[in-house]
Amino acid sequence: MLHKSTSLRSEKGRPINNERLEFLGDAILDAIVGDVVYKRFEGKREGFLTNTRSKIVQRETLNKLAVKIGLDKLIKYSTRSSSHNSYMYGNAFEAFIGAIYLDQGYDRCKQFMEQRIINQYIDLEKISRKEVNFKSKLIEWSQKNKTEVSFELIEQFFDHDNNPIFQTEVRIEGMPAGTGIGYSKKESQQNAAQMAIKKVKDADFMAMVNEKKESLPTQAEESASTSETDSNDIES
Q1: Is 26 an active-site residue?
Q2: Which entry of 22, 42, 46, 94 is annotated as an active-site residue?
Q3: Does the global pTM surpass 0.70?
Q4: Residue 233 pLDDT more than 80?
Q5: What is the DSSP string of the chain?
Q6: What's the CATH code, domain 1-129?
Q7: Catalytic residue at 46?
Q8: Identified catalytic residue from 26, 131, 152, 202
Q9: CATH 3.30.160.20 in the chain, residues?
Q10: Region Disordered: which residues (predicted)?
């Protein structure tokens, strides 16, 4: 399994890595786990089902699953790269599922996930009760990567029973990264943060974020500009 840090290319100059399989596997995992959770928890509301699925397909869980089935020993990557560590195993698991889907089809892939992964390694009842604070995870990521994250309440409306519903948008360096709705501001923030955590895995999005960060003046430049303005005010 080839991580993108290997920088290998085909004879035509195209990158050789797992990224396309990761994309496919991510979508297949969402569908399979969504199906399993829907059938397992009859009568549960959409929010519960969405959160339970998210706990199963989140990066931390996929990382652990990849190690348990030995994928960590099959990954080739560049030792010069240090940015891949937190996502690498989970990405490999997604690529693995994508490969099974292409080779065996959806039904066999679903059978593998249910019998070899979920039944053996995942306690659905336990994981459904586990609290995951996506907002805290996103803030922790932002602090580690020195990246600005904000939560904006963009809309409030009511459902057919006249219950208030809130819609929150997460912005990373001012750019929209995810929206979420909920019956409280906290729930809408959690759902928006969950989407944003997935968004920061998008290499194209993060390239735009980093480009914007580089274009912003540094604190030293801002201080110098402020000092120059103050000096001009004194002289005048």
Answers
A1: yes
A2: 94
A3: no
A4: no
A5: -B-GGG--B-TTS-B-SSHHHHHHHHHHHHHHHHHHHHHHSTT--HHHHHHHHHHHHSHHHHHHHHHHTTGGGT-B--TT--TTTTTHHHHHHHHHHHHHHHHH-HHHHHHHIIIIIIHHH--HHHHHH----HHHHHHHHHHHTT--EEEEEEEEEE-TT--EEEEEEEEETTEEEEEEEESSHHHHHHHHHHHHHHHTT-HHHHHHHHHHHHHSPPHHHHHHHHHHHHHHHHH-
A6: 1.10.1520.10
A7: no
A8: 26
A9: 133-217
A10: 210-236
